[in-house]
Amino acid sequence: MAFKDMDLEKLWELFPMKFVDNTDNFSNIYFAEEKKLKFLLGSYIERISHIGSTSIKNIKTKPIVDILIEINFDDKDIIKDILLHNGYLLMNECINKLSFNKGYTITSYADKVFHIHVKKYGDCDELYFRDYLNENQQKATEYENLKLELFHKCKPNRDLYTERKTSFVNKVVNLAKKKYKGRY
Predict the structure, then answer these.
(1) What is the model's pLDDT at position 104?
(2) Dihedral angle at the C-alpha atoms of 64, 167, 123, 75, nearest 10 degrees?
(3) Angle 145-147-152 (CA atoms, 0-180°, nearest 5)?
(4) Are 173 and 127 in contact (CB under 8 A)?
């Protein structure tokens, strides 16, 4: 059976959400994958960044490393082909973003799991969010508590979990953009 043949409930069962303590190992995993991606994509990358909860200090996180790759979006089809031919699965494609996964097997998670977000250079709210939470432990703890509460309320539904975090994330991004105006 292939992923495309599975309904969401089967996928959620196969890939349950879990949370772990954040460690420096996530940074090491990120840098190793960043090196691979830079080799594969070379000058197509305008900026590559570690994002998501594994990039935020001192909070529990799902053991999935999120990577933001900003590009000239005119090159998106070239990027898509390169990643597809090198073990990345295209999960979603929309007008302004490509989403890839790596580390999902037909039976479970691999040892290292990645979500790759390919966006137009400058479309980087995730960087503002990461920086703000890394500099504001109280807000980071509030985010951690929200994630753990939603995990218990929404499991196994990942989509609902993500949807219910959106308001908090948007508020933090707006605060961060005011504080770090022009940073990115």
Answers:
(1) 84
(2) 60
(3) 100
(4) no
